[in-house]
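Onboarding guide, step 5: your first structure request.
Type a short instruction followed by the sequence, for example:

Predict the 3D structure of this protein.
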Amino acid sequence: MTTLPVRLRALADLATPEQSVTASDWYQTAADRIHRVASNAHGGHVPRVRAVYAAAALSPQQTWEQSLACLARLARGERPRHLRHCEEAARRAWVDGIRPSGRKVGPFADALLGDRSAIVVDTHMLRACGLSADTSGDRVSRVRFEACALAIREASEAYPGGWSPRDFQALVWVVQRGAAW
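The system replies with structure tokens like these:
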């Protein structure tokens, strides 16, 4: 195993039993909360996929609570008040069911919808790998994202207990950042 997966495994090894449970349930719990927030704000049932896609599109560069607040505004027909490109992607997701794209938000949506092989790389995971969290669109940034994703996959395959890449990423994230609720 190369250095990056070893580094991630060392972080995962610090997990308490409670953190392990939180991580293994994080994506399902988050998706349930997204659907509940969207449905309540909309005043009735909304398709789960559209709510998750919109929430993923609204997730960059803000906290979980800020993302949910933006989603609630969108569900009420208001402007989400986030980065313009995030708002546009969220509207496409909400209205037309279009999956958001991007190195982070696409896989984040997939993970929320139950894809256990989805690998979510955000600035926190880049830092966990010891890589620069500069997410500008340059080639170096793509290489860092790919290196981090590969490290998550390799570390999850070698980690005891049969952790999927999605849940292993959540475990490292929870150890490093907390549950982020």
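Each response can be followed by summary notes, for example: The mean pLDDT is 92.
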